[in-house]
Each structure stands twice: as structure tokens, then as C-alpha cells.
TrEMBL record:
This is Calreticulin. It is found in: Cell surface; Cytoplasmic vesicle, Secretory vesicle, Cortical granule; Endoplasmic reticulum lumen; Sarcoplasmic reticulum lumen. PANTHER family: CALRETICULIN, CALRETICULIN AND CALNEXIN. Transmembrane segments: none annotated. It comes from Sphaeramia orbicularis (orbiculate cardinalfish). Residues 195-254, 267-294, 337-419 are annotated as: Disordered. Residues 1-18 form the signal peptide. It comes from the Eukaryota.
Length: 419
């Protein structure tokens, strides 16, 4: 009993300590519309829909914002009380579900300073942090971690692979005051390190000494020609010789065909260019290493991780095939609390979601098999089926063209974003 009491106090202290700056799980129907502000920067942004999608672990809890129109930009954001992460950890967490089998589209969030005009948020609005998965074709399947430092966006130098299946996944970014970070997917660490090592925020600590030069007489040849070695007298042989086995054809007519010459063949005695033997160079000094000096441009900065007046979380992205559901947004200063909340939300619904998806897939496969069986029997009597198939082909081609165009659009947008 006493132990339980202590435990309760510890837990209470723990949660009292954790500060949750923003939490959004879309559990109150249409009320989310009063908290989220759509950008009006463009007139044709895609519509967000509140839904748990085609399969889920819990019809209510799994409701989130879904992109509902293909080949559109999406831009909406939610504001919270401005805060600074100075001296504290910063955790940004959310779930993403690409239930549409995404081909190309963003699944990331951006975190903005308080002065963002939400009604005008767009691809070039200055943000502090961009974090989350991005998929385009087979080549781009990564987790972005971009930090703004002194007005410039810096991309992580490591490649972090994102999930590309159709289930809900939990993405977590932890930024610590000791300038270390951690990226987790489904509450498991996938990458970690330090800000200085994994981004180019600061100029390099050391540079090559501009004053230093390789001495003129520095000998960096490990091997040299052996001066004693001479070319053997019988070395030089022609590369090609007349074929000794060739015979003048019987019907060769010297008047008509000219003088007969045997064809040339490679000379088996040919030894190629003569090269003297190589010996160790007695004057070899090793490879010259350019001496390094402290970079005068470098000065350490222990405040790279700090952001002042963090106040808006935004979804600003492009999607070709829509259907992605965003949910369980969380911004806090407590890593353990984030893990707990991740477990209580995503952790609870992931297994039933996987089951429902599995059942649907099994059902579809069965139906498909039934249809194929029917078709096999019909095929012999009826060839109308073929016309139907042709129509489908036309649809496919159209989709492909759309995709191609959209990918180009996206690249343009992305390169702007990342600069
Ligand atoms: C979250 O769930 C995982 C897996 O069940 C568990 O190992 C971990 O301890 C949990 N985290 C917290 C903070 O309870």
C-alpha cells in the first residue's frame, strides 16, 4: 500500500514536470476547424477530411486529418502558446498513415515561430523545424530533419529511411539541450547523434593551413624505376605478323586483285612496351599531409538547438495520390511523456488496425480469385470482357502522365523548400 502511494506520487511528480505545449488528436468532431487555420495563399489547396480511413484500430480515436484530393497542395496549421525550448528537451511527435499506397507526397510537419501569418502559410514561409517522412517514387523514401539556423535551412547529412507501407506509424523527433538529437519511428530509435556532426550549421573546426605548401623536394613516390635494369636486346618484336599459315587462294588473280599479301595476326612473341623493374624509392618521404589549423571562421555555438517563440505546427505539403492521415500531434519537453502518449495512442490501435487491414486484404484476394474463376468459364463463351480490359488500360496511362507532371512540380517546390 505504502509502495503504491510512493509510486503514485512519483508518477504525479513526473506528469507535473512534463510540459505539453501542443496536443491534437481530433477527438471532438468538427471542433478541429476552430483550431486549425487553412492557408489562403493559393486558391486551390486540397481539402482536409476528418476520418479514420478505410481501416483502423478504433473508429473514433484513429480519426485524423486526411488529404482528400489528388495532385494538390495542402496547407493548414494550428497555433499554441509560444514557448522557448532553451534548457529543455523538445519533442515533436505525430502519426502518419499512407493508406492510399502513396506514390509521391509529403508526410511531414513544419514548426513555425509566432509571427507566422497562418492564412498566408506557404512553401517559402520561414519555419524552425521540418520533420517527417517524404516519399516520391522509389528513390525518395526518407525522413526529413531540417533545422533553421540563423535564417538558413540545414538538411541532415544522414539518410534516414521512412516507412512506406499503408499502416499508421509514429514519428518522433527529440532535440536535447546538449545539442544531441534522436529520431524514432514507432517508439524505436532509428537515428541519433549531435547537431554539429550531422548538420553543417557551423563552418568546419579545422581547415588546411593556407600558408603550408608541399616542399619542392618532397619525394612522394613509393616506388621508382630500377636504374640498373635494362631492356633485353631481343625484347622488341612487332605487334602483328603475317599469318604463316595463310595461303594465297587458288583463284587469286594478280592482275585483277593486286599482289597477294597474307593477313596479319597478333604476334605471340610480342611483349609490349618494355618497362624497367620497380624498386623501393630510398628517398621516399611518405604522402605529404597538408597541415591543418584552427579555422578562424569557426566559433562554437551551444545555442544551435534553441528556438524562441515556437508557436505554430503546420502541414504544408504536396501529394499526388491523396489519402494520408495525420494524427496524434504532440509537442512536449518530456521524452518519456511522449513515449507514454505514443504508447497510449498509436501503441494501442496499431495491432487492431493491422488486423482489420489483413482481413480486408484477405477478403479482396478471395473476391479476386472468385472473379478470375468466373472469368475463366465465361471467356470461352463471351469476349466482351476484353473491351472492359482495354478501357482500364486507358485509365492507367492517364494516371501515369499525371504522376510524371506532378513529380516535376514537386521537385520544384522541394528545392525551394530546402534552400
Ligand atoms: C512503450 O511501449 C513499449 C513496448 O510495449 C515499452 O517497451 C515501453 O517501455 C513503453 N514506454 C513507456 C514510457 O511506457
Amino acid at each position: 500500500m505504502k509502495l503504491l502511494g510512493v509510486l503514485a506520487v512519483v508518477l504525479a511528480l513526473h506528469s507535473a514536470h512534463a510540459k505539453v505545449y501542443f496536443r491534437e488528436e481530433f477527438l471532438d468532431g468538427d471542433e478541429w476547424r476552430s483550431r486549425w487555420v487553412d492557408s489562403k495563399h493559393k486558391s486551390d489547396y486540397g481539402e482536409w477530411k476528418l476520418t479514420s480511413g478505410g481501416f483502423y484500430g478504433d473508429a473514433e480515436k484513429d480519426k485524423g486529418l486526411q488529404t482528400s484530393q489528388d495532385a494538390r497542395f495542402y496547407a493548414t496549421s494550428a497555433r499554441f502558446e509560444p514557448f522557448s525550448n532553451e534548457g529543455k528537451s523538445l519533442v515533436i511527435q505525430f502519426t502518419v498513415k499512407h493508406e492510399q499506397k502513396i506514390d509521391c507526397g509529403g508526410g511531414y510537419v513544419k514548426v513555425f515561430p509566432a509571427d507566422l501569418d497562418q492564412t498566408d502559410m506557404h512553401g517559402e514561409s520561414a519555419y524552425y523545424i521540418m520533420f517527417g517522412p517524404d516519399i516520391c517514387g522509389y528513390s525518395t523514401k526518407k525522413v526529413h530533419v531540417i533545422f533553421n539556423y540563423k535564417g538558413k535551412n540545414h538538411l541532415i547529412k544522414k539518410e534516414i529511411k521512412c516507412k512506406d507501407d499503408e499502416l499508421t506509424h509514429l514519428y518522433t523527433l527529440v532535440l536535447n539541450p546538449d545539442q544531441t538529437y534522436e529520431v524514432k519511428i514507432d517508439n524505436e530509435k532509428v537515428e541519433s547523434g549531435s547537431l554539429e556532426d550531422d548538420w553543417d550549421f557551423l563552418p568546419p573546426k579545422k581547415i588546411k593551413d593556407p600558408e603550408a605548401k608541399k616542399p619542392e623536394d618532397w619525394d612522394d613516390r613509393a616506388k621508382i624505376d630500377d636504374a640498373e635494369d635494362t631492356k633485353p636486346v631481343d625484347w622488341d618484336k612487332p605487334e602483328n605478323i603475317p599469318d604463316p599459315d595463310a595461303k594465297k587462294p587458288d583463284d587469286w588473280d594478280e592482275d585483277m586483285d593486286g599482289e597477294w599479301e597474307p593477313p596479319m595476326i597478333p604476334n605471340p612473341e610480342y611483349k609490349g612496351e618494355w618497362k624497367p623493374k620497380q624498386i623501393d624509392n630510398p628517398n621516399y618521404k611518405g604522402q605529404w599531409v597538408h597541415p591543418e589549423i584552427d579555422n578562424p571562421e569557426y566559433s562554437p555555438d551551444s545555442d544551435i538547438y534553441t528556438f524562441d517563440k515556437i508557436a505554430v505546427l503546420g502541414l504544408d505539403l504536396w501529394q499526388v495520390k491523396s489519402g494520408t492521415i495525420f494524427d496524434n500531434f504532440l509537442i512536449t519537453d518530456d521524452v518519456k511523456e511522449a513515449e507514454d502518449i505514443g504508447n497510449e495512442t498509436w501503441g494501442v490501435t496499431k495491432e487492431p488496425e493491422r488486423k482489420m487491414k489483413q482481413e480486408q486484404d484477405d477478403m479482396k484476394r478471395k473476391e479476386e480469385e472468385e472473379r478470375n474463376k468466373e472469368q475463366d468459364t465465361e471467356d470461352t463463351e463471351d469476349d466482351e470482357e476484353e473491351d472492359e480490359e482495354d478501357d482500364e488500360d486507358v485509365e492507367d496511362t492517364k494516371d501515369d502522365t499525371e504522376e510524371g507532371l506532378s513529380e516535376m512540380d514537386k521537385k520544384e517546390v522541394k528545392s525551394k523548400d530546402e534552400l
